[in-house]
Write a structure and sequence with these properties.
ligand-gated ion channel, disordered C terminus, alpha/beta, Peripla_BP_I, 30 strands, eight-stranded mixed sheet, about 950 residues, glycoprotein
Length: about 950
């Protein structure tokens, strides 16, 4: 059985080999020629591999035979003509090459005349489409068209990288052709692009790198050089720190990956280096892997451009020729001759070229090595894909397509173990950001004990805390660099200074302070999203509040008025006394019980008259009133005078006390414009002055013109200088500044205040160099700080000052919305009240002592006994009846004491009975006394009536 199966296997193999031999014998043999310069071994190896793979295709109907010719290194058109003619004499159906070393198109012209397809795989920088349509009809190039490559670079720089300022460096004419479109970036001014030729610095390349670093301060370089020159050039640039962090290199040669930069990568290559290459076809995961990698496999796997394009050129021609020859057209070998008269063009040649322009990459076998093969009507490759990658680690980043789109690539890139030591991407290492700023409260300040700290620890402020929080979120280190000011623009030299200069020259990576986002600044630097919103307002001097007068209630009348009022009252008192004495109606009977008294009494003595005058002017009245007509007329006139004076005083008092509010002489920008006594200005060259100078609003333009006209200049060199001028001017100078700095200063100085509403709207942001790749991360981090309320906390921490309290914070009339009066302004009223009370008490004490003396004399006791008795009685507030004599006071006191002792010794029952009896007896006594008093009053009334009638009758 085993022998039987072995016999069948031998028979099957024999039949299979016989069939293959038959197929080979039935294939049409097509000769192809190739021209190579010496040293192009890799390209020749790719050519042979492509022919071998095609010939090994079992179902491929054509068999290709190669004829090679080698060109000396000397560029000689006669030699090329001779070698081309030799190939034509060998009846070749296509000619491949030569490479771009040949500066003549003699091969293309001969092939065009002979009708032989001419395959190009290298750059052709001298492309004239009209000339190509007429004299290069048989030429087909699989190399990417230079015009399309230049457009691809423009898309990458403009759309993906967003570079607006860079330096171009090239080595060859081909390199210049590849980067020529970059000089026409629409968003970039010509002064932002500099171009240098390496050939001009071949004596000493360090001159070039020094110029780029010290003169250009360039951070973005686009270089096109040969692969073998790349590593030595970068090593020289490394000496000038051009490979440090925040530097960006874009290498445009399509063979940069074969330069050895991958192996040369080390810790010194910290810059972001990217390059491009023709994108290869992704490997088929189901394809059988080779156990043995040959030299040509490694060559094509490395995507070296010329060998790869040679391979694709052979595949393109072979498939086009097969489609034409096997499509029904009889194959006739070309019979072109360079020296034969009357020779004719090969008929199938133009059909094969036409098929190459129509063929699809999905219809060829073996497949192309590069993606997106499309030949246009001029025989140029118009479509291809470029791969953007990092040559230092050979990692793909994105893919450019002919439609201008750039798609990011995300995949795990496998690196062989032999190169694992060079895998690390040193460009991603932790960076140290140089943060440029300047001293400005409260953004950036020196600590009070700064001498006790070193480095960045001696600084404090809003900007310091903000950068610290950003560094924690983005995980970067930083160091502060101090300059003078945010940056002023010189319109003559077109140069900036301060923070702006440092960012433009790339001496710093972040600018932070009170740096306003303006359109002019955005032309030179980029800004993050705002971290603070603000406007413009007026800083003005607030004078000390007027010293409040405790006798403010006297201010409604002048001193003379008060003197005349007092004098008038004295005169009226004397006049009233005189008029009362001559008026018989004012003389009354002093004793109503006597019907016919011998004397009459006049109650309008000086003290009663003065009491009437005072009560009238106080609007309180008096219990004593005049009876005669003259006296009533005089009293009415005095009442009229008192009414007018009191009404006038009341109205004037309200006006005087509420008009003491401190009001500034200006309340808005319009008030500043309409006056000429107070000068006003802004920070010279700052965003505030730019706002007024470029505004089209009438008031702002008027304000700007007035500021320019002031002598001496109203502009200041810094905000601090402006604040000092306001403080020292004491109302003669106003400073227009941003509301953030204004509120900070008014919070700490009671002599400063904000006048008017906010003008306009502005924003503070972090400034970074143009096109900085970390700007987006900074913006995202700032938004997170805003969403978590951290920015508000920072502002509250550095703006609000709880250590300074102005004296007039509570008593300042400006702080009161109504007309309320302070305690100080009404203090005089209280003083008058207290003074009157004290005087009354003193008079009362003197009167008490005088009465004690009289009692002691009358009752013949010592003054001490009299004083003691009178004082003890006065302190017994519950006793309402006073005996007439001191002995009665003492007796009543003793009786009261004995009764109290007896009452405590009695029983409770007798106590209640005693209390009832005492109450009854007291009630009966009170009722008897009240009856007697009523009878006496009625008698006195009747007697007074009878006496008055009698007196009036006799009168």
């Amino acid at each position: 059985m085993y022998r039987y199966w072995c016999l069948l296997l031998i028979v099957f193999n024999t039949l299979h080999i016989s069939c293959e031999l038959v197929v080979v014998e039935t294939r049409t043999t097509v000769k192809v020629g190739a021209l190579f310069f010496s040293g192009e071994d890799e390209t020749e190896l790719a050519f042979d591999e492509a022919i071998r793979q095609i010939n090994n295709q079992k179902l491929f109907e054509l068999q290709f035979e190669t004829i090679k010719r080698y060109v000396p290194n000397e560029d000689d058109s006669l030699v090329l003509q001779q070698l081309t003619c030799e190939l034509l004499a060998q009846d070749v159906a296509a000619i491949f090459g030569p490479s771009s070393r040949a500066t003549t198109d003699i091969v293309a012209l001969i092939a065009n005349n002979a009708g032989i397809p001419h395959l190009q795989y290298d750059w052709d920088i001298d492309i004239d489409l009209e000339q190509r349509r007429l004299n290069h009809q048989m030429s087909v190039s699989v190399a990417p068209a230079l015009q399309t490559v230049a457009r691809a670079y423009l898309d990458i720089i403009r759309k993906d990288y967003k570079w607006r300022k860079f330096t171009l460096i090239y080595e060859t004419e081909q390199g210049l052709a590849r980067i020529q479109d970059l000089m026409n970036v629409a968003e970039v001014k010509r002064e932002n692009i500099k171009i240098r030729n390496l050939a001009e610095y071949e004596d000493d390349m360090r001159v070039l790198w020094k110029e780029i670093e010290e003169d250009f301060h360039e951070q973005r370089l686009i270089m096109d050089c040969k692969p073998e020159s790349l590593v030595p050039l970068l090593n020289q640039a490394k000496e000038f720190k051009l490979l440090g962090p925040f530097r960006n290199w874009f290498l445009t040669h399509l063979d940069t990956h074969s330069s050895g930069l991958f192996q040369a990568n080390n810790a010194d290559f910290q810059s972001n280096i990217t390059s491009v290459r023709v994108k290869g076809v992704d490997a088929n995961p189901f394809e059988r892997k080779k156990t043995r990698i040959t030299e040509v496999d490694q060559l094509l796997g490395n995507q070296t451009m010329l060998p790869t394009l040679m391979y694709d050129a052979v595949v393109l021609f072979a498939n086009a020729a097969r489609n034409v020859i096997t499509g029904g057209r009889e194959f006739v070998e070309p019979a072109g001759r360079c020296d034969a008269e009357g020779s004719y063009a090969w008929v199938l040649g133009k059909y094969i070229v036409g098929e190459m322009k129509r063929i699809s990459e999905d219809d060829v076998e073996p497949p192309f090595k590069t993606e997106n093969m499309k030949i246009d009507e001029y025989g140029l490759r118009s479509e291809f894909n470029l791969e953007i990658y990092k040559p230092t680690i050979n990692e793909p980043l994105a893919t450019w397509s002919p439609d201008g789109s750039i798609q990011s690539v995300r995949r795990d890139f496998q690196i062989s173990s032999s190169s694992s030591a060079a895998v690390q991407d040193f460009a991603q290492s932790r960076r140290v950001y140089r943060v440029v700023t300047h001293i400005e409260e409260p953004y950036f300040m020196m600590k009070e004990d700064a001498e006790n700290f070193r480095g960045d620890e001696k600084y404090e402020g809003y900007a310091v805390d903000l950068i610290q929080k950003l560094s924690e979120m983005m995980e970067f280190e930083y160091e502060f660099v101090l300059v003078n000011g945010n940056g002023k623009f010189n319109p003559v030299t077109k140069e900036w200074d301060g923070i702006m200069r440092s960012l433009i020259d790339h001496r710093a990576q972040i600018g932070v302070c009170d740096l306003t986002i303006t359109q002019l600044r955005r032309k030179y630097v980029d800004f993050t999203v705002p971290f603070m919103q603000l406007g413009i307002s007026i800083l003005f001097y607030k004078p000390d509040p007027e010293v409040k007068d405790i006798f403010a209630f006297l201010q409604p009348f002048a001193k003379e008025v008060w003197m005349y009022v007092i004098l008038t009252q004295l005169v009226m008192t004397l006049a009233f006394v005189f008029m009362a004495r001559i008026s018989h109606h004012e003389w009354e009977n002093p004793n109503p019980l006597v019907e016919d008294p011998e004397e009459l009494e006049n109650k309008w003595r000086t003290r009663n008259t003065a009491w009437l005058m005072i009560g009238s002017i106080m609007q309180q009245g008096c219990d004593l009133l005049p009876r005669g007509a003259p006296m009533r007329m005089l009293t009415a006139m005095w009442w009229f005078f008192a009414l007018m004076m009191l009404s006038t005083y009341t109205a004037n008092l309200a006006a005087v006390l509420t008009s003491n509010k401190i009001k500034p002489s200006i309340e808005s920008l319009e008030d500043l414009i309409d006056q000429h006594e107070i000068k006003f200005g802004t920070l010279e060259g700052g965003s505030t002055s730019l706002f007024f100078s470029e505004s089209n609003e009438t008031n702002y333009q008027k304000a700007w013109n007035q500021m320019k006209s002031f002598e001496p200049s109203a502009f200041t060199k810094s905000n601090k200088e402006g604040v000092e001028r306001v403080r020292k001017g004491e109302g003669k100078y106003a400073f227009l500044m941003e509301t953030t700095s204004l509120s900070y200063n008014t919070e700490r100085d009671c002599h400063l205040q904000q006048i008017g509403d906010q003008i306009g709207e502005k924003h503070y942001g972090l400034a970074v160099p143009l096109g900085a790749d970390y700007r987006t991360n900074l913006s995202v981090s700032i938004l997170k700080l805003s969403e978590t309320n951290e920015l508000y906390k920072l502002k509250k921490k550095w703006w609000k000052n709880h250590n300074v309290t102005c004296e007039d914070d509570e008593t300042d009339p400006q702080a009161v919305d109504g007309d309320e009066l302070s305690l100080i302004e009404l203090g005089g009223v209280f003083l008058v009240l207290v003074g009157g009370i004290v005087v009354a008490i003193i008079i009362g004490i003197l009167e008490f002592l005088w009465n004690v003396q009289k009692v002691a004399v009358r009752e013949k006791v010592t003054p001490g006994e009299a004083f003691k008795a009178e004082l003890i009685f006065a302190l017994k507030f519950w006793i309402t009846k006073k005996p007439n004599r001191i002995s009665s006071i003492r007796t009543n006191s003793d009786d009261t004491t004995s009764r109290a002792s007896r009452s405590t010794s009695r029983r409770s029952s007798s106590q209640s009975k005693q209390s009832k009896q005492s109450k009854h007896s007291k009630h009966s006594k009170v009722s008897k006394r009240s009856k007697r008093s009523k009878r006496s009053r009625s008698r006195s009334r009747s007697h007074s009536k009878s006496r008055s009638k009698k007196y009036s009758t006799s009168g």
